[in-house]
Write a structure and sequence with these properties.
Rossmann fold; N-(1-d-carboxylethyl)-l-norvaline Dehydrogenase, domain 2; binds NADP nicotinamide-adenine-dinucleotide phosphate
């Protein structure tokens, strides 16, 4: 039976690891906070004391952690997965990381004989738990073919953008667009509130107008109701993604004023409530000076 080491059991990773168990893989799990693994272990996963311990004997090591720092730690740090992963094993990085980190990590893991797949995802935690993510892959075609059996439990769509790093380029564009839309929505709704408009009418008009992207629709009613329960994506993660996108853009374009302004907006959101829902942006915009 194919053996997967799954590292990072947060909102996304927990459901993804469960997909491997449900699909009949032998699964070893590690998370910085052990309690998040308890139900997976009860369902048959092996708890590993470190990423290195999880990676022993794995055909594929899959990581889903917060950011560059976490990714570096779990792959390359002390007791990181690279210490023990066998030569030829797949290293599938699903975390949203910076483009430079994806390239550097690929370089380092390949030097240790691993087959690196750049594999950020789109889809919310419920899609992760249902195996309905979209995978944004950057990899050589032969490596992708080798990885397909290990990607299949996670997704209903694989988009292959090109070589390593290209999946991350698309992911960062996607999330910068989302960040701009959420920040813009918060400002638009706050203006409407301050101007005294009927907010039910505003919501209905947004829903039926051309500015109604899925991202806008996902957040508009919650922002007006100030209902931030069940956070699926935090202000800290949105800030990170926008900042990584702007860092990438700086190497490609002379100026990106909207991207920069969006990072500044999420600087404030992160300082205000880092682990709360990204939609709290409206509370920041609405705050009296
Ligand atoms: P999350 O719930 O905040 O989980 C973050 C995970 O990273 C946890 O397992 C956490 O461990 C771990 N972690 C953080 N810092 C670490 C460190 N220094 N060393 C080791 N582990 C560390 O985040 P998430 O929503 O699952 O997101 C995970 C990744 O998926 C992020 O890159 C995010 O941008 C991306 N993503 C998220 C969504 C979404 O809708 N949520 C959608 C697509 C992509 P602890 O449990 O110990 O804190």
């Amino acid at each position: 039976m194919a053996h997967v080491a799954f590292i990072g059991l947060g909102r996304m990773g927990h459901g993804m690891a469960a997909r491997y168990l449900d699909s009949g893989f032998t699964v070893a799990v590690w998370n910085r906070s052990k309690a998040k693994a308890d139900d997976l272990v009860a369902s048959g996963a092996r708890w590993a004391g470190s990423p290195a311990e999880a990676a022993v004997g794995a055909d594929a090591v899959v990581a889903m952690v917060a950011d560059d720092e976490a990714s570096r730690a779990v792959w390359l740090g002390k007791d990181g997965a690279a210490e023990t992963a066998k030569a030829g094993a797949l290293a599938i990085e699903c975390s949203t990381v910076s483009h430079q980190h994806a390239l550097d990590l690929s370089h380092d893991l390949r030097a240790r004989g691993l087959v690196y797949i750049d594999c950020p995802v789109t889809g919310l935690p419920d899609a992760a738990a249902a195996g309905k993510l979209t995978l944004l892959v950057g990899a050589e075609l032969t490596d992708l073919e080798k990885a397909r059996p290990f990607l299949a439990p996670l997704c209903n769509t694989i988009r292959h953008f090109g070589p390593v790093g290209s999946g991350t380029v698309y992911k960062l564009i996607n999330n910068l667009l989302g960040a701009i839309q959420i920040a813009g929505l918060a400002e638009g709704l706050a203006i409407a509130e301050q101007a005294g408009l009927d907010m039910n009418l505003v919501l209905d008009a947004i829903e039926h107008g051309v500015a109604a992207s899925p991202q806008v629709l996902r957040h508009s009613k919650r922002m007006v109701a100030r209902n931030f329960s069940g956070a699926t994506f935090t202000a800290a993660l949105r800030h990170k993604d926008a900042a990584y996108a702007v860092a990438l853009a700086e190497s490609l374009l002379p100026d990106i004023p909207i991207g920069r302004a969006t990072v500044q907006a999420y600087d404030k959101a992160k300082a205000y409530a880092p682990d709360d829902d990204e939609a709290k942006m409206i509370e920041i915009v609405s705050r009296p000076r």
